[in-house]
Amino acid sequence: MSLSLKKILKQLDAIFISESDDSYKKIETTLKLFFKNVLHTNSSIYAKTLYEKYHPSVIVIDIDLNDINGIELIKEFRKKNKSIPIIIITKNTKLENLIEAIKLNLVDYLIKPVDINKLIYAINTSAKLILNSGDIKTTIKNDIKYNYVEKHIIIKSEKFTLTKNESRLLELFLTNKNKFIQNEEIKKFMWSQKEVSESAFKSLISRLSNKLGKDTISNSFGIGYGIFDK
N or C: which end of the chain has fewer CB within 10 A? Predict the structure, then answer.
């Protein structure tokens, strides 16, 4: 997996649906290396609530759930999203389960105890599918999202295209979310060793801020700029 794709994945959420058994913590820890948030639950009802609220980019599900057959839950997700990458984890090796799972367009079907290298390979495959779909989105703040591939922001279903410099600056803020970046660091990242006027620097900040909406970019006088969740 390329470094840039890893950075993108670090802006995305994954849902991990599993009972809290002996193996879930190791799997969860691995997922947290790749994703911004890993939303864990053992409840099918809460899993559906999390899906509607966070619109995750990947679903990892142990189909051996206490309250529902995980295959049936996947079918419900597939009605809402036919392309979201789904990775199955199970101790069940019954052929009928495998046949049912194949119909659901899965990334992988991993048998417990899970080989972590195989899990990482499945995550890598998921990342490629997301990239090829052109649907790599992350939440900037509240209802404002950013599409990494198409380089536009989405505000309440309305799209706004960013220039090359605006998208680079936004991605810098997202990579360093919840902290201020010093002005000189921003200038060095955006223009390398070239001299840039203060007016050009502030103009870029202002243009991006106008597209994102008021108060999305925070400014701390004498420190720098940043984007914060709250």
Answer: C
DSSP 114: P
Q: Which amino acid is at 112?
A: K
CA angle 130, 59, 119 (to 5 degrees): 85
Give CA–CA dist 25/42, Å, rounded.
13
Q: Is the pTM of this model over 0.70?
A: no
What percentage of the chain exceeds 90 in pLDDT?
53
- Burial environment of residue 169 by CB neighbours within 10 A (0 to 12, 13 to 18, 19 or more): buried
Asked whether residue 3 carries a pLDDT value surpassing 60, the answer given is no
pLDDT tens sequence across 25-67: 999 999 999 998 999 999 999 999 999 888 889 999 998 888 8
Q: In the chain, which ranges are E strands? A: 13-17, 37-41, 58-62, 86-90, 108-111, 137-141, 144-147, 152-155, 158-161, 217-220, 224-227
Q: Which amino acid is at 44?
A: S
| Fold for the domain defined by 3-133 | Rossmann fold (3.40.50)
Which CATH number, 1.10.8.60, 2.10.109.10, 2.130.10.10, 1.10.10.10, labels domain 163-227?
1.10.10.10
DSSP 39-60: EEES-HHHHHHHHHHH--SEEE
Q: Where are the domains of the chain?
A: 3-133, 163-227
Q: Are 62 and 42 in contact (CB under 8 A)?
A: no
Examine the pLDDT at 147 and tell me if it is beyond 60.
yes
